[in-house]
Amino acid sequence: MIRVATTSCVLALAAIGCARSSEPQTAEASRHVRNRFFVREDAAVAKVEPAPHGNLGDSTAYRYFDDVTDARVIFRKRALHKGSGIGMHVLGHDEVYYVVSGRGRLRVDDREVKLGPNTAVFMHAGADVGIWQEGDEELVVIVAYPPAE
User: Fold this and answer.
1) 6 in any annotated domain
2) For residue 113, which of 93, 124, 99, 92 has the smallest C-alpha distance?
3) CA 35 and chain centroid, separation
4) Integer Cα distance of 94 and 144 in angstroms
5) Alpha-carbon gap, residue 22 to 134, rounded angstroms
6) Any residues with CB less than 8 A from the CB of 61 and at least 6 apart, and which?
7) Do residues 103 and 139 make contact, with C-beta atoms less than 8 angstroms apart?
8) How far apart are CA 53 and CA 87, in angstroms?
9) Which helix (H) or strand (E) holds 3?
């Protein structure tokens, strides 16, 4: 459990997602390019809503940086509640899923695989994709992809 939590936090820190602030913050000085960074805590961005692409049950969406209009990467977390899933949809961009916790199954085109914690999946634009929660624990997935042009 500690290994999973550590891995998840390290991944999240890499994208500034593992944070200690309850409110969205404005730009702050840093040594990084463009001198801006943003910190978000799960509680500040969590929203329960229907799972995307087919409304297959409920999920909790974590849209950490949607207010950063010039971001060059979209970084989100999605917790699929028991029995829910993200319906089949064709990707318009490359996309990465990283399973933080729980179990599920992923279908990409005509292939289906089981997923569990500490598993990453890269999918190219044009792939027909769907993912479903299985078992008693929520399936928690980090999702990263480029913004629409």
Assistant:
1) no
2) 99
3) 25
4) 9
5) 31
6) 46, 47, 48, 49, 76, 77, 78
7) yes
8) 5
9) helix 2-14
**In contact, 130 and 86? CB cutoff 8 Å:** yes
CA atoms within 13 A on the CB side of 56: 18
- Domain span including residue 104: 44-145
Distance of CA 116 to the CA centre of its chain: 15
Task: State the CATH number of the domain containing residue 135.
Answer: 2.60.120.10
- What is the total count of domains within the chain? 1
The owner of tokens 């913050």 is: 25
* Cβ count near 114 (within 10 Å): 10
CB atoms within 10 A of CB 64: 24
Edge-to-edge strand list for the sheet holding 95-101: 46-50, 58-63, 74-80, 139-145, 95-101, 119-123
Residue 22 pLDDT exceeds 50: no
* Contact (Cβ atoms closer than 8 angstroms) between residue 95 and residue 141: no
SS3 139: strand
pLDDT in tens, 83-112: 999 999 999 999 999 999 999 999 999 999
